[in-house]
Amino acid sequence: LVAFLAYCLSVTLKYRLRAHAPGLTPRAVLDKLAAIQMLDVSLPTTDGRCLTMPRYTEPEPDVALMLHQLKLTLPNQHPPRITALSGETLMKNSQGKAIEHFGYRDGISQPVLLEADAPPTPENWDPSSGPNLVLTEAPLGERKVDWGSYYVFRKLEQNVRRFKEHERDLAGELNLTGDSRELAGAMVIGRFEDRTPVALSGAALGANTPANDFVYGDPNTDPQGYRCPFSAHIRKTNPRGDPNGQTLDEQKSHRIVRRGMPYGDPTPPSSNLEALPETGVGLLFQCYQANLAHQFEFLQRAWANNAEMARPGTGIDPVIGQSNNGSIPDLRFPTRWGAPGSTPFSFHSVVTLKGGEYFFAPSITFLKGL
Predict the structure, then answer these.
(1) CB contact burial 41-80 (16+ within 10 A = b; e otherwise)
(2) What is the largest CA-CA distance in the chain?
(3) How does pLDDT run across 12-49, given as a tens digit for each residue?
(4) How many CA atoms lie within 13 A of 67 on its CB side?
(5) Which of 28, 119, 123, 342 meets the CB 3.0–4.6 Å disulfide criterion with 332?
(6) How far apart are CA 366 and CA 69, in angstroms?
(7) What is the per-residue pLDDT across 143-191, written as a single tens digit (0 to 9) for each?
(8) Is residue 351 within 8 Å of 319, Cβ to Cβ?
């Protein structure tokens, strides 16, 4: 059957070539068409599924000219499809949402690069940025189309047992009981495990959570840090209008487009602290940006590692902060959510950097020009 179909294709091409391109042979045409490849680009989503985009490579100019001569057109690119990933390789919470090893949903607030992806008009926080947040001219490029992006990769090992023990002890210090004990971890991260911002609510709101449309500096939100500590991980790395000497637009210029992929045993954390892993699990952190110094390095050095940002005595980021002098002062957590008064607590050493590297990811147009 295959041989018969190949014969039919050869005969069809032979007669079409006589009419439109008598100087070509069926073999020459097939060799050129072989350069057009079909492939599936698969991207994991944050909710445990896979976005698959079937794509064929754009034909080179001489192949495009040949197709035009033969009056042949390539089919339309197939639309993307979303499917479930095969196998349970992702950790999920009780609602079936993908989580990282500490039990929290990740990657909630991302910059929006294209107008088509922008949410309806936000009341408080506009995530839009434009492509210049991640695209820059290629260092060795010579044409206006030679662009690319700086890529950061880090392997971060998570000590899940220590994190959950700290979480338990902090809940005790704050006299939290029952379901309200989850508030302790929310003050460390800045969100509850279901992604509810602790600056907006003292309890997890589930599906009703306003996950991203807020700024800390709003008088109706949390300008004093009575709800969400200034040291909370997501407040440290995205201050959203906190008075730290920069305007909101300047703060937003430091954002990165990031993706965290858990590695290791995908079993979600349980209440049995002794069974939780201390090594061997973690996050493969990746991010893109146009300027390493202004974005990734600035976030880590000037914000996460800076114990005085955004207020004196704030402390370092309890998740990714690194001490500049070896000492790690206590953090201060609201004694009662939404009210003045704080309780000191030492929450640190739950993530270890195992390795990483900087890369430059050039555009396809740059690679074609080499």
Answers:
(1) eeeeebebeeeeeeeeeebeeebeebbeebeeeeeeeeee
(2) 87
(3) 888 888 888 888 888 888 888 888 877 777 776 665 66
(4) 17
(5) 342
(6) 28
(7) 888 899 999 999 999 999 999 999 999 999 999 999 999 999 999 999 9
(8) yes
Scanning the structure block, which residue is given the tokens 């929450």?
347
- Please choose, from the candidates 114, 120, 108, the residue with its C-alpha nearest in 3D space to the C-alpha of residue 132: 114
Query: Alpha-carbon distance 287 to 356, whole Å?
Result: 12
Report the predicted TM-score, pTM, of the whole model to 2 decimal places: 0.75
- Helices and strands, number each (H, E), in the chain: 9, 10
Q: What string of DSSP letters covers 69-97? A: HTT--PPPPPPPEEEEPSSS-S-B-TTS-
Rounded distance between C-alpha atoms, residue 304 and residue 297, angstroms? 10
C-alpha angle 184/94/120, rounded to 5°?
80
| Alpha carbon distance 235, 229 (integer Å) | 8
Residue among 197, 131, 185 at smallest CA distance from 160: 185
102: helix, coil or strand?
coil
